[in-house]
Every structure is written in C-alpha cells, then in structure tokens.
Write a structure and sequence with these properties.
Elements (H helix, E strand, L loop, with lengths): L6 E6 L2 E5 L7 H19 L1 E4 L5 E4 L16 H17 L7 E4 L4
Antiparallel strand pairs: 1-2, 3-4, 4-5
Length: about 110
C-alpha cells in the first residue's frame, strides 16, 4: 500500500514528509531509532544561515512530528494527520533558543 522503502516529498509550503522503515524488534529499539532520525533531521535544519544583503538567520531547527504505522489498513491520510498533530505539539514545546532570530548587518 505505501509503495516505497525510503521516500521524501514536499507536502506543502514548508512541510516535508519522510517515510522510513524502522526496526520493529522491540518498542525500545523503535523508540531509539526514531529518536535518532528526529535528531538527525533537526540537526540538519538548525544553524546560522546568511541570506541576501548579509542578513543572518539563526534557526533552532525544524519542528518534527512522526507517526508509526502498524495497522496495514491505516490510510496515508490518517498517518499524516497523526504526524501533523505531533508536529504542532513539537512547535508548542519550549526550545533552548529562539526558533528564528534575524540578525541584520550593521551599517
């Protein structure tokens, strides 16, 4: 039904979807692997980015929501809705720094 072993796609505006197979030996293994994937995605999107005219944006990283599909009858829409709800919960949680901080060049 899902049709790919590892897929990624732009879902809308600034939202992306990553489908990834995760080990299912145990809940502990799954949680550890999922946490590693989330950390890698967040680390890949965090940093200081220099835009046009020397404007620097400090970004704390993406808000990430994920869902585990264990029911072969669950639809893609249902799985995405669960992941979307999880992403909004992640957006609401406090971060150690600003989500976005814009630094303009002096002058």
């Amino acid at each position: 039904m899902w049709g790919c072993s590892r897929c990624r796609a732009r879902y809308g505006g600034d939202e992306f979807v990553v489908l990834a197979p995760l080990p299912s030996e145990s809940a502990e293994t799954f949680e550890s692997t999922a946490a590693t994937l989330v950390r890698r995605l967040r680390d890949a999107t965090a940093g200081h980015f220099t835009m046009e005219e020397g404007v620097t944006v400090a970004y704390a990283g993406a808000s990430i929501g994920w869902s585990l599909v264990t029911d072969p009858h669950e639809s893609v829409d249902e799985a995405l809705a669960r992941a979307d709800a999880a992403m909004y919960r992640d957006k609401a949680r406090p971060r150690t720094g600003p989500a976005v901080d814009i630094v303009r060049p002096r002058g």
